[in-house]
Write a structure and sequence with these properties.
Length: 647
């Protein structure tokens, strides 16, 4: 899998060009044919560094008047904010050494709040920006404090945001006057509410504020506050794990559009609520296919249009209609994953789209004229995009008969029945979902002869509440059995063979990696744990306080140390036979770096095979291009060493 650039081939091309030509025209035809033949043979194969420099442009915001579109890109080495100029050229607005964490555009499109932190700490501070010039004013500067979820007031004179500045644990809601920088807490413990609170939406008249408070990672309550009096009311009344998200308060100050999974099948659906009643009205009028989960929802600023992202087994497609009358409008002809969108006053939609063979870019869709316009153009670093491969969506049966969806990637020259090196990709979360989006490293491995299996085991989101909750607490290791069943499916169908299997994963996926090589120590010949959990007890003790409660509801509480010990790979490190690569960031606030150091030390102590890379300037994963290249180059070398020859 090392880069190849054969000088002799280039010399041969030049000799061919000069020999046997009877005329300039004949020479041109002959040269073009022979050079094309050489290129088709793949004389030059870019290394992993080139793949990691393939671009991607991610929607940050768009002004209501349609004049400004903003996106995030790491073209300069870390994720920064750019504005598309009238000429269509990107104008860089930020230059933070560690990039930006979030961007919130004012309603008039002239100002924005930037969130930025240092070294991957995620302790975002707030900055006020003039979006025309990029001029900045720092609004907050608190040590070990996180700010986020910024919502602008209707008059753009103030903002609402969450912060844990009071006790470093609970997220309460504050209001800040932009002109003076003065802030006050308006929602939190004084209301008898603790945990993770945030502002969601401001009423059209500016008098009311919608808020939510997350009581676990899969359950929240919603509130409506009168901003003039500070009085509030709780809007929902349920006892289960119900999520109320993507809320928009309509101009009548009574109707709320939202997504909710409080229905019988626990699937996220389009819904409405009326202020004063806890009842949720699920909309099933044929507009949306209710077999699939609703992944996102948005209402235009003039309350005329509503748009929805439907998650069809990982693929996400945009649907649009008028709110009054319910007339459906044409949808953009994009087949892949639409991730986010913004309306403008003309009814056009700016959206972010990517797919397995196409990097993320911004597009503009006019549903009236059905005109689709590409706004940004990701660079492919000189790599031929036509060589990239699409996956096949497959399903296999797990130990208890449950059907597990997965994406199967095969190398471009794969021959049926041929055993090739295979990587199993374990996603994070676990309340997340592998989607068929553009993955630079996966395309690199495919073009170098590897196959990749990316399952969505029990515990994944996108398939309803019941499926998502199947791995909670005492059922933790059942999800590992789903990965085992996926490997057995690969072997039974002849895609790979013993000695040619590797596994990699990040965050919770890193735990999956360690769990698999301790529960099934002979299954894999190489494993890469990126920012993963080795010891659930120390993880819960050392993760940031504002995250602990939400993780306990998923993984199990610190009050049950015996169970946490039973599922922690660190206590079975002595049986690890698989060569292991461990990658982590020194400043990780989610999964502290001590998790990596524990497993490295345990394997070294018994003389096992372990390599590691700890970044001093990163947190929960590498974000800077130079570090991303280093991380994936090491993975490429590692898996090539242990899997290419079926060791």
């Amino acid at each position: 899998m090392k880069s190849k650039f054969t000088v002799q081939i280039l010399v041969a091309v030049l000799l061919i060009s000069a020999a046997g030509c009877t005329s300039q025209q004949e020479a041109g035809v002959a040269d073009a044919t022979k050079v094309a033949s050489l290129l088709d043979k793949g004389a030059y194969q870019p290394d992993i560094a080139a793949f990691m420099q393939i671009g991607g442009n991610f929607l940050s915001g768009a002004s209501w008047d349609g004049s400004k579109v903003f996106f995030e890109s790491r073209a300069s080495g870390a994720y920064q904010i750019y504005r598309i100029t009238e000429e269509g050229w990107p104008y860089q607005l930020t230059a933070f050494e560690d990039g930006v964490d979030f961007f919130s555009l004012s309603r008039n499109g002239q100002l924005a709040i930037i969130g930025a932190s240092v070294g991957g700490s995620e302790q975002s501070q707030l900055y006020l920006m003039d979006v025309e010039t990029g001029r900045l004013v720092q609004l907050t500067d608190y040590e070990d404090t996180r700010f986020g979820q910024v919502v602008w007031a209707q008059d753009d004179k103030s903002i609402f945001y969450y912060s844990n500045e009071e006790n470093r644990q609970d997220m309460f809601v504050y209001r800040m006057d932009i002109a003076t920088g003065e802030s006050e807490k308006i929602f939190g413990d004084t209301a008898g509410v603790r945990g993770w609170c945030s502002a969601v939406d401001v009423s059209q008249d500016g008098n009311l504020l919608l808020l939510d408070s997350w009581t676990s990672n899969t359950s929240c309550d919603i509130y409506l506050m009168d901003l003039s009096t500070g009085e509030f009311q709780k809007l929902n009344d349920d006892e289960g794990n119900v999520e109320y998200v993507s809320l928009t308060l309509m101009p009548d100050n009574k109707t709320i559009w939202l997504r909710c999974n409080g229905n019988e099948d626990g699937t996220m659906r389009l819904a409405k609520m009326t202020v004063g009643s806890p009842e949720v009205e699920y909309i099933d009028d044929g507009w949306l296919d209710t077999r699939w989960e609703l992944a996102a929802l948005g209402v235009s600023s003039d309350y005329r249009f509503i748009a929805a992202l439907i998650n069809e087994d990982g693929y996400q497609r945009l649907k649009i209609r008028e709110i009054a009358g319910g007339k459906e409008l044409p949808a953009p002809p994009l087949d892949g994953v639409v991730s986010s969108f913004e309306f403008d006053r003309k009814g056009c939609v700016v959206l972010q789209f990517d797919g397995p063979t196409r990097a993320a870019d911004l597009w503009k869709w006019d549903p009236r004229s059905e005109k689709l316009e590409q706004l940004t153009f990701a660079t492919y670093a000189g790599i031929d995009r036509t060589t990239f491969r699409d996956p096949e969506l497959i399903h296999y049966t797990s130990f208890d008969g449950l059907e597990i969806p997965a994406f199967l990637y095969l190398p471009p020259d794969y021959k049926e029945g041929e055993a090739v090196p295979f990587l199993v990709h374990a996603h994070g979360g676990p309340e997340s979902q592998y989607k068929p989006q553009f993955q630079r490293n996966i395309q690199y491995f495919l073009l170098n002869g590897f196959g990749v299996l990316a399952p969505n085991p029990r515990g994944s989101s996108g398939y309803g509440r019941e499926y998502r909750d199947l791995d909670n607490y005492k059922n933790r290791q059942n999800s590992l059995k789903d990965y085992k069943a996926g490997v057995e499916w690969l072997l039974e169908n002849g895609y790979t063979a013993p000695g040619m299997l590797g596994i990699k994963g990040g965050s919770y996926g890193g735990y999956v990696v360690l769990g698999m090589i301790t529960e099934y120590p002979e299954m894999f010949s190489a494993a890469a744990d990126i920012v993963g959990i080795a010891n659930f007890k120390t993880f819960l003790e050392n993760t940031k306080p504002y995250r602990r409660h939400y993780r306990e509801t998923e993984y199990g509480p610190l009050s049950d140390p015996e169970f946490l010990e039973s599922v922690s790979p660190i206590h079975k490190a002595g049986i690890i036979e698989t060569p292991l690569l461990v990658i982590h960031g020194e400043n990780d606030p989610r999964v502290p770096v001590g998790e990596a150091r524990q497993i490295i030390a345990a394997i070294n102590q018994r003389g096992g095979e372990v390599d590691s890379l700890i970044f001093p300037d990163e947190g929960h994963g590498a974000k800077k291009t130079v570090n991303i290249i280093a991380m994936y180059r090491l993975q490429a070398e590692f898996f090539s060493k242990y899997l290419s020859e079926g060791n």
